[in-house]
Amino acid sequence: MKVAGTSIECALWKNCNNQIDTYTGTSLKSELDSEFNMSPTNNIKSYRILKRNEGIQYLAAHNQDLLLNTLIENKDIKNIKVCDPLCFEHTSPDMSREILEKHSDYRTISVVRNPFDVLVSYYWWSFNVEDSIFDSFNQRYSNNKRLISSMCPESNDTIFQLRKKMEKFYNLPASFNNSYRQADKNKNVLEWLSSWQNEFYMHNIDSYITYESLNKSYSDVLNSLDLKFIKIPKFKSKNRKAKYHFSEYFNDKLKKEAYCLFEESCEKFNYSQLE
Question: Which residue of 96, 178, 223, 266 pairs with 271 in a disulfide if CB–CB is 3.0 to 4.6 A?
Answer without folding.
Answer: 266
